Every structure is written in structure tokens, then in C-alpha cells.
């Protein structure tokens, strides 16, 4: 699988020149001057059985050969017996804007005789990344926070045309509260247009039936009509029907395009009439990158953290969350956060004692000022 390909670059950041348009340098909905200056950092996880075109898609998505071609790679004794987690970082640059991209790959998923626990190492990895972030938040010096949390998980569904497999359902059920799930139909060029339409509906029905929460891109009324329309179009395509190719093929008219050639014609990766690849890329890189990061941080991570704190015996008063107005609520959450931190730190041993004292005095000062946001 991807193992051999990734090892080369596992420990360092590879600089890559772009071979085509990607779109992150032009970010109508997410122009954050700071991000443009410092560059973006985005972590995406790729999950699906081997052979579904995961590495091809990553290469296609970022217009660069992140994964070396791995034709003729035979399984060896080294073939892992469990799901492995491998992470690869690359810095790509477009029009002077940098994107530090981390791809977390999960070779072995679904490839064993017994795949019952295939989701487990993946869940563990996502939670370990949350833990690493939580640990940094508890430090006094929070200036150099490193965010290695997974911002999106592209889940590859085999193009069976039937419905989700038990493995798909199990994975999504286990992970949906921990990561932004973006399901895609792999190798959709193997299905007809009608089959794709029906397959998509069945997948969505299955997802609904099993109460699975896939990523819901938010809609904002204050966006301009063009953006709203663009977003709607993207969202309506989920689960994206994907075709990947890192090769150029020649169309009947002689033009060379990224695509796959068939006796009856060429399927073009970058043609929205042929597949949803462009829509997936738009969502991931152009329109929803910041949203995916925010949702990861504000909802998925927050929930993880409060559950963790609760399991450590830190009680929360559910009535505190009564909604008054957004500002008050934010302040409430901030205070709650301070309290949580304080309590947690109290449980930690001597190393943290000094820090705890600092936090306490800070909190006391806030209270002295007479702020009360709980009504
Ligand atoms: P991975 O094991 O999931 O990373 O899959 P690869 O990206 O290595 O692809 C496995 C094989 O499927 C390769 O021969 C690819 O050329 C082919 N492939 C990749 N994407 C597509 C696609 O969208 N459609 C078709 N028909 N084949 C694809």
C-alpha cells in the first residue's frame, strides 16, 4: 500500500512545486490576512480500503505528487497486520501563499479478514491529537501552540452501487463525533450517471438511518447570493463522486486533460460535468477550510475536552449554558473554561502548582470586578 511511498517523507516537510491550479491562494470566503502572511496549515485524514484510489486522489487534489506512484508494489512480509497511521507533510505554494498540508493516511483499513476493530487505531490517533492540544492549552505559555488536530476525514466508499457496507457504517458511527466526515464515492468513473445518482441517495439514506453526522457545511444568510449559491451547489454533491488521475490523457479534439481514457471517451477530472472532484477541492481548500478548522476546534474538540474533564471528575453545571446573548455566552464559556482548567490543574502534581496559583489569582480578580454572566 502507501507504506513504502510515505516513508521517504515521513520525518520532514517536502517542498513541492504545483503542477496546476489548486485555489488556496484565492480565498473569497476566508481571507484572513494573517493566514495569507503566515501560510495555511491544514490536516486531512484519508480512510478507505486499499486500491480505492486514495493516494491518486491526494496527488490530484493538491496538484502535486505527494505520493510516489507505486505500481508494481507487491505485498511483502512487511505488510502490516493492523491499521497503521502515517503522516506526511508538504508545503505547497501558490501565488506566494503557502499551504502546509499534512495528510494522515491509514493503510490497512478494511484490508484484513477481520476488520471489526479497524476504526480503533484511527479513533485513538484522532484522540491522541486532541490530547496533545489539550496538554498545550494547560501550559502557561500558550504562545507556541502546535495544532495537529485532524480537520477533515475523507472517507472512501467503494463504488458498489448498492449501499454502505457494515464496515463503512461502523467506521462513521465511531468517528462522527470526533472528526469532520466527508464521504466520497471512489472511482466513480466505474458507475453510470444514473447509478451514481441512486447510489448517492442510498448512501444518504443509510447515513440518516444510522444517525451518522457527516460534515454539514453551515449556511450564512449574510453571505452574498453568489456565495450561498456556490455553497449550496457544493453541499448538494455530498457524497462527492470522485475520479482521480495523476496522468494527462488526450481528448478527441487533441486537448490534453487530467483524466481517464475509455474506449467511449475521456472522463475529465477537472470537468464538473464529469465528476465532483472540483467541488470537493473547492470545499476543502477554497470555501470551507477555515470552517472545517473552526468546527474541529469549537465543537469536536470542545466536546472531547469536556467529556474528558468530566471523566476526570470535573463536574459541569448544565444550566450554566442557558443562552442569553452570544457575547455573554462566550464569556460564560470562557469562565467555564478557566474553571475547568483550574480544576484539572488542581489534580495535577507539584510541577503545576505554581501555575495553578497564577490561574487562581487571575480568576479571583475577574470575580472581584463583579462580573456575573450567569443570568
Ligand atoms: P490506494 O491504495 O487507495 O491509495 O489506491 P491508489 O491511488 O494506489 O489506486 C489504485 C489503482 O486504482 C491504481 O491503479 C489507480 O490508477 C487506480 N485509480 C485511482 N483512482 C481511480 C479512479 O478514480 N478511477 C479509476 N477507474 N481508477 C482509479
UniProtKB/TrEMBL annotation:
All residue ranges annotated as the Septin-type G domain in the record: 38-311
InterPro entries with a match to the protein in the record: G_SEPTIN_dom, P-loop_NTPase, Septin
Coiled coil spans: 327-369
Pfam families: Septin
GO cellular component, one term: septin cytoskeleton
Residues that span the membrane, as ranges: none
Keywords from the UniProt entry: Coiled coil, GTP-binding, Nucleotide-binding
Keyword field contains GTP-binding: yes
Keyword Ligase annotated: no
Any one GO molecular function term: GTP binding
Family: Belongs to the TRAFAC class TrmE-Era-EngA-EngB-Septin-like GTPase superfamily. Septin GTPase family.
Name the record gives this protein: 2827_t:CDS:1
Amino acid at each position: 500500500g502507501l507504506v513504502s511511498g510515505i516513508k521517504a517523507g515521513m520525518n520532514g516537510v517536502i517542498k513541492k512545486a504545483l503542477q496546476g491550479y489548486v485555489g488556496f491562494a484565492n480565498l473569497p470566503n476566508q481571507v484572513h490576512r494573517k493566514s495569507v502572511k503566515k501560510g495555511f496549515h491544514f490536516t486531512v485524514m484519508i480512510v478507505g480500503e486499499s486500491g480505492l484510489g486514495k493516494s491518486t486522489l491526494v496527488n490530484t487534489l493538491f496538484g502535486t505528487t505527494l505520493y510516489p506512484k507505486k505500481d508494481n508494489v507487491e505485498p511483502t512480509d512487511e505488510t502490516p497486520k493492523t491499521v497503521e497511521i502515517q503522516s506526511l507533510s508538504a508545503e505547497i505554494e501558490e501565488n506566494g501563499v503557502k499551504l502546509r498540508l499534512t495528510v494522515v493516511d491509514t493503510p490497512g483499513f478494511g484490508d484484513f479478514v477481520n476488520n471489526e476493530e479497524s476504526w480503533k487505531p484511527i479513533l485513538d490517533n484522532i484522540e491522541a491529537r486532541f490530547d496533545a492540544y489539550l496538554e498545550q492549552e494547560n501550559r502557561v505559555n500558550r504562545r507556541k501552540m502546535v495544532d495537529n488536530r485532524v480537520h477533515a476525514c475523507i472517507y472512501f466508499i467503494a463504488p458498489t452501487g448498492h449501499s454502505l457496507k457494515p464496515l463503512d457504517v461502523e467506521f462513521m458511527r465511531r468517528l462522527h463525533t470526533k472528526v469532520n466526515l466527508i464521504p466520497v464515492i471512489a472511482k466513480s468513473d466505474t458507475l453510470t450517471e444514473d447509478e451514481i445518482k441512486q447510489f448517492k441517495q442510498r448512501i444518504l439514506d443509510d447515513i440518516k438511518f444510522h444517525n451518522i453526522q457527516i460534515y454539514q457545511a453551515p449556511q450564512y444568510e449574510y453571505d452574498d447570493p453568489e456565495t450561498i449559491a456556490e455553497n449550496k451547489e457544493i453541499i448538494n454533491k455530498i457524497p462527492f463522486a470522485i475520479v482521480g488521475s495523476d496522468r494527462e490523457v488526450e481528448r478527441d479534439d487533441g486537448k490534453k486533460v487530467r483524466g481517464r481514457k475509455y474506449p467511449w471517451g475521456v472522463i475529465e477530472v477537472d470537468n464538473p460535468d464529469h465528476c465532483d472532484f472540483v467541488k470537493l477541492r473547492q470545499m476543502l481548500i477554497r470555501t470551507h477550510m477555515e470552517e472545517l478548522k473552526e468546527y474541529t476546534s469549537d465543537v469536536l474538540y470542545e466536546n472531547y475536552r469536556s467529556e474528558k474533564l468530566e471523566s476526570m471528575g470535573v463536574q459541569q453545571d448544565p444550566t450554566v449554558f442557558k443562552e442569553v446573548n452570544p457575547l455573554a455566552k462566550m464569556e460564560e464559556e470562557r469562565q467555564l473554561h478557566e474553571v475547568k482548567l483550574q480544576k484539572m490543574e488542581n489534580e495535577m502534581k507539584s510541577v503545576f502548582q505554581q501555575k495553578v496559583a497564577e490561574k487562581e489569582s487571575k480568576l479571583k480578580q475577574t470575580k472581584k470586578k463583579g462580573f456575573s454572566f450567569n443570568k
